[in-house]
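Researcher: I need the complex structure. Ligand is 3,4-dihydroxyphenylalanine. Inputs:
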Amino acid sequence: MKRLAQLKEEGLAKIEACRDLNVLQTLRVLYLGKKGPVQEVMKMMKELPKEDRPAFGQQVNEIKSLFASMIEERKQVLEEEAIQKQIESEKIDITLDGLKPVIGTIHPLMLVQQEIEDVFIGLGYTVADGPEVEMDLYNFERANIPKDHPARDMQDTFYINAEELLRTHTTAIQTRQLEKCAKEHALPIKVICPGKVYRRDDDDATHSHQFIQCEGLVIGKDIRLSDLKGTLLFLAQKMFGESRTIRFRPSYFQFTEPSVEVDVSCHVCGGKGCSVCKGTGWIEILGAGMVHPNVLEMAGIDSKEYSGFAFGIGIERVAMLKYGIQDIRNFYTNDIRFLKTFNRFE
Ligand code: DAH
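Model: Output:
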């Protein structure tokens, strides 16, 4: 009986003190399994007088079921604790600042392109697109530059085959637009056509074999050179400042007649002469002219009824002037430090 009391006390103390589920499992095996102190005590029953045995057996069984329920109770406590511990360790402190996602910047060339688009959309133009792998037909022939014309030398390019090439200028989009609008009887036309163009050119600080142009095209009845001048003056003032003026210089393009080279008064010195305008006070920004009758006729537009103007502007050149960038290659080398300077969000 003494041994029984000792066993009970010892067992309950161990179960009570147990802090670990694995240890508890060992205790379970020890006290409720086939070999252990409880079984040992049970064996002692043989030594007792017969009449005492049932009471003794009953007591052992009571202790055993007490152990079982105590172990079960302990198990629940420990499991609860373990879950609590896990919750604590996985707790997220939502009061901490999150990681700031890195937001990219709009490429300076896209900024300029979008700015030009905005100016013309505001004037009622639409924006048109065309393929970069272009047909000789639209890039040259329809721009009044036949196969053997020496003007092709200035715009040598990458040929895909005898009929297809990487377009050399956005004038190819212009010739497509002329044909499309003639077919659909969608005249007058007022479009701008931005896009990448390609030429066989050595890359240096001011030249690249790939660059971006934006073509402008207006066709209607009684469109004049003065309309072109007013439009380009508006563009120059929007892009370079309200006090800018422009001037036309006679030039030659196969697809326009007459043709002009357009200069804008220098936005750095205001026209006095500085290093940016090479002392002249003027900066050349684009080529333009009145669309050649041949170009209209080839597209199926009656050149006696309709006339119009066109211009082609180099986006890189405008961006370099606007932002004071010295080397055109900065646009293409993806240097984050350079690109970040155009971050509008900081
Ligand atoms: N296509 C010419 C070039 O790439 C630029 C140009 C000049 C476009 C006059 C025009 C224009 O539409 O009228 O050099």
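Model: Summary of the prediction. The radius of gyration is 44 Å.
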